[in-house]
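Notes from the 1:1 (GR / supervisor)

We went over the backlog. Supervisor wanted to see one worked example end to end before approving the batch request, so GR pasted a single chain during the call. The sequence is below; no edits were made to it. Supervisor asked that the structure be written out right there so they could see what the output format looks like.
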Amino acid sequence: MRTMGEDESERLRSAEFDFIDRTLMGDDRSRTLFDWSPEAIVIVNRQGIFLDANKKLYEWLGYKPAEVIGKHILELPFLPDKTKEIIKENFVQRMQGKDISAYEAAFLHKDGTEKWGEIHGAFLRDNTNNITVDLIMVSDITERKCADESLRRLAAIVESSDDGIIGKTLDGIITSWNPGAEKIYGYFAEEVIGRPISLLLPLEYPDEITKLLERIKHGEHVHHFETMRMRKDGKRIYVSLSVSPIKDGTNNIVGASTIARDITEKKKMEGQLKENEEKFRLLFENTYDLIQSVDEQGKFIDVNPRWLETLEYSRDEVKKLRLTDIVRKDQISHCQEILKMIFQGKHSKNIETVFLSKTGKEIVVEGNAHGLFLDGKFIGTVGIFQEISGAKKN
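Structure output shown during the call:
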């Protein structure tokens, strides 16, 4: 049996639907405009009960009318808790006659996907100026919010990057300058924005930026271009530059973005390595020791001139040799055991064995050998030997 309260509630609900039909859906044209509006439209009563919505809302959020009509707005399944609180607060304030600007809120699709909408509200009143229903329009701003979030993440990356990230016009005027650029070049952003990027150029590179920007104007990307720049304190540094075009909304190239990495220390290390390689090569070429390198199969990788002279082979002939070809037969198993130890990362010292020259001459040698490894992988051995044939005879 229905109570008087339930009967009254039903009567008011019926009156509200009649009002909606008369004011909003007075004819088929009005209903068509309502249903096919590009914006989602929701109608709720003074008590916050969901009365109706257009097709856009149901398509946007994946629910059917029967799943939401008649529910209080705080019970709607497509509103997360944080949005319910916002809508409740704004609904109360608007009922009190306060003007509320459009605001953004999160929604939930039935499949759990988060959506974002911009909410506008307007009360509809009857002939006596009493509020009857609240007409709420929701604009889908999900893509914009995702784009904004991507921009925020990008901005955070730019701000926290150790690389210098610089924006400039096609004329070379600096438009943006991140903390990484401050660290590399020594200038604060306010010191350089609006000034030409050429202030970083050493005098001997007058046309470099002009040439780079010409490539950018034609849509090219420049990757890992190594060059020199000048810091605020006058110090010259090596940098690796990657330069890309900046395009506007119509795909026109309007500027250039540069990512700069300070490679000064790397260049110093490369210079030292080259110097050490030259010193080693000088020693390798001129020492009286016999130096040889073989791979895991015992094939020769390299030998020095003294080795070639002593064993009477040409460099081309060595390419076809294995270690077993130049070791006396009774020494082969001994040498193979040593190689096995070296493959396991062990050094072998005070090795004494007998080499055979191309003409069969026996050469007694003594020396040390160790393995060469790259990223933990064995790539060869290096052995350094001294000829002790004369000492053995004595």
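Supervisor's comment: The chain is about 35% helix and 30% strand.
Batch request approved.
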